[in-house]
Amino acid sequence: MKRILWITAALLLGIFVLRQGARYSRRLRGNSSQLLDQILTTSNQLASARASAESRRKELALARAENGSLTAELTAADRLRSQSLASTEPTLAQSPTNLPTWSPASPHIWLEKPLLKCMFLAVFLSDGSINPTAAELLALEPEEATRLADSLKRIVAEHRRQEAIRARVLEEHLPQIASVEGLKFTLRIDPAKEASTGLRADFEAALTEELGTQRMELLKGSIGIGLSGIFGNGGQPTQGRTMSFVRLPSGVFQLAVEDGSGIRLDSGFRDIRQNVPEHLHHLIPPEFLEKQPDATEP
């Protein structure tokens, strides 16, 4: 009896194991099928992407070829146009026999060099570098203009640093301002020391080295005015400079400047900063920077 029971139990266990194996096999086959579908889908997507990339590559190659052809055509057309202009209008690029000459069809104004001496041109920018218009007029190459600007800006920066050290506010005002009613401010820039008197000479030397004597001579007047604007007039380094301001009841300022060349008067400006060097603005009292109402306003 026990033997029969053992045999029955073994048979039942075998049947159970077989059923479990069959279920696992079916599940495995299902998973394999899904995985195979995914692999096929991914493979199709990859093939499609490769085909799209290849098509795009061909389009880009074609576009490059068309652009290259167009560039070559434009270059050839421009060359032909230049040759045509050179052959039909040679006088537009050649100086005329008699000067000065004006031709509406020409891109040039033909002048003799000495005429530049009669012209005023703002040669320098506020930092001491050459005005781009002046650089173009003097035919300075970009690297020459850059090299010159570096030298001039360095000299001007040193001049302003030393001038700021010598500047101070005074309680005593110039006679032309002291008697005028209104809020007053006087600024004194003491005479330059030996170290700073040579900065203007250094500036001119750097300018001459880069421009040459002829170009310096052509713009001598304009250059002189520009130098006075940066370093003051010829007497300032040794005589110093005093500037007295008064704000009139109308809100505008009146100014008297005393330096080595005498006394200069100015009036009618509303912003005191336009007549005080920028590197000395920190010495202006705050009450002089407050905007005053226009007397003509209601």
Labels describing this entry:
single chain; 5 strands; 8 helices; five-stranded antiparallel beta sheet; alpha+beta; 298 residues
Description:
- This protein is an alpha+beta fold and 298 residues long.
- Helices cover 54% and strands 11% of the residues.
- The protein has a domain at 113-288.
- Strand 4 and strand 5 (262-269) form a beta hairpin.
- Helix 3 runs antiparallel to helix 6 (199-218) and helix 6 (199-218) packs antiparallel against helix 7.
- The longest helix has 87 residues, at 2-88.
- The radius of gyration is 43 Å and the shape is elongated.
- It starts with a helix and ends in a 29-residue tail after the last strand.
Topology diagram in text:
Blueprint (H helix, E strand, L loop, with lengths): L1 H87 L43 H6 L4 H25 E4 L4 H4 L4 E7 L4 H4 L1 H20 L1 H12 L4 H4 L1 E7 L5 E7 L2 E8 L29
Helix pairs in contact: 3-6, 6-7
N-to-C span: 129 Å
**Structural class based on helices, strands and sheet pairing:** alpha+beta
The count of DSSP E runs of length 2 or more, i.e. the number of strands, is 5
Average pLDDT over all residues: 76
The succession of helices and strands, N to C, reads: HHHEHEHHHHEEE
Q: Give the low-confidence spans.
A: none
Number of helices: 8
Helical residues, percent: 40-55%
Classify the beta-strand content into a percent band: 5-15%
> Which strand order does the major sheet show?
1-2-3-4-5
The largest β sheet comes out as:
5 strands, antiparallel
Radius of gyration from the CA trace?
43 Å
Shape: elongated
